[in-house]
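> @MW can you paste both from yesterday?
MW: sure, first one:
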Amino acid sequence: MNQLTDFMHDSLGSAPTPAGLAPLLDKLAERFDHALTGVVLYGSCHRKADVTDGLVDLLVVVSGYRAAFGAGGLAMFNWLLPPNVFYMEAQGPDGVIRCKYAVVSLKQFRRRMKSRIDHYFWARFCQPTKLVLGDKETLAAVAAIQACGARTFAKRIAPRVSSPLTAHEFWITALTTTYLCELRPEPPDNARMLIAHDPDYWRRLTAILATEQPLLEAVGPDHYRGLTSRPVRLVNGLVWQLRRVSGKLFNLARLFKAAGTFSNGIDYIVWKVERHSGVRIEPTERMRRHPRLAAWGLAWRMWRQGGFR
């Protein structure tokens, strides 16, 4: 392993596993059986000592989609537009524990961390995470994949950084840029708050990237700038404009897909949009019975009311 992979390896495996996860992991092991390769905890619950009072975000890594789902539509949808996203509850000693879990194969996880047009994976999984289920081989594989995602993210953002920035400012710029590719951009302070939760992680990550990335140069104590020419910066700006369109389309397609993979998928879409925008449309029982057909009309109504843009 190289220095960046070593860093990701330590980050994935060193933090203590939050209390309360066991019932969820047991249900995932039962559901996916021999197809289950590993489970990664990410998102805000990654920083909690106990996850019993929140919605846990998990990435379920499988050996293959047919092994995980059989030969039906779920396997096809997961291959066409990863990940499939599901909601699950488990009974813990102190009550119900809830999670939202995404499914991806190890092979596709690796490939998507290099994607040119879809930022979903490399924008999320170069952030601090914790491997909560998996052996040493899985830990090494996921660490290498996350290192690849960090390189991809830095490569996409470095041309946008012509003036020296601190490590934290670099990644605030990076996250803010990807937020503009979502259906509903996050509030301006979200990126700054996220980086502030793990300051040492982002400082060390940037220092390592600067030693191996020809596009990123250290120009002083904890200050960096991109090493790209003006033509490269102009092309990069155009690519990000295109990615703002493609990112919203991918985001919309994943929401529609979740309408079919979630139990109460229409309610999930309504909750998701309301959480980010404050706009709520009450779904009908007909929408709940035919979620994939209803999702298009619901999306149109939400767009007209400002639920996303």
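MW: second:
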Amino acid sequence: MLTELRALNGLADIASEYDAILCDVWGVIHNGRSAFDAACDALVNYRLRGGRVVLLTNAPVPKERVLRYFEPLGVPRDAYDDCVSSGDATRAVLDEHSDKAIWRLGADEGWEHDRFLYDGLDLTFSDTPDEAQMGLIIGLRDQEHDHPDQYTEELQGIARLNLPLICANPDIQVRIGDKLHWCGGALARIYEDAGGQVIYPGKPHQAIYDLARRKLEAVGLSTGEARILAIGDGPATDIKGANNQGLDALYVGTGLAQYDDAEFLAGTSHLLSEHGVTAKYIQQALRW
């Protein structure tokens, strides 16, 4: 119902009600091309008043690779206490399965980005899925030009092998600049539809939230009693994850789905309902 969504003038309206924030990255504080200055300022102001902020992203790389782009994009260091990525959670799962040969699905050979996900781990890789005991979905081979449907036949064949696949990025799509790009979650969905088993370390699943709570505890917050707010633009990941964790959620409209002023309330209500999730608050863009 529309009346169940509380539209905020700014984060300042509710800041005093929460001890910590778990905040999404892509679509909330930047769009892959530049920072959202007002969103970054909101987190800076929240921290200046004693709040803790851990960034929570489904990027399939370790947090160090996430953070290295912040300065060029204009994200200030004082906007957050720490960061947790799906890549971090995925590395932990990979390490648990280091005795298995792993088949990888990701960027074409020659693009160095994927290797950061497993650099330094003692893993054995298989060139073909039929020789592997575990699979790893990092993303599409060509994120710029491929469509997930191109992988349907291949993934259906692999599903018949009963090969469990770890999905390093559960996002279906991500907005880079003004364009949406497909992510590993779109391939994982095809695999599950074909009857395959998928392990998800990232949002909205448990592993990444366990890591985030440990980060909050490391900066002095007792998470068992803390009032924690989750902020995100993804109904199926950020908001569903908040719902799963029993956290209040703030949905912001600067990422996957974007509506103009007149449509924002109705569009957001329909979007959240469509995904079967609830948010306590909404903002068209995160601001103080």
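> thanks! The longest strand covers residues 52-57.
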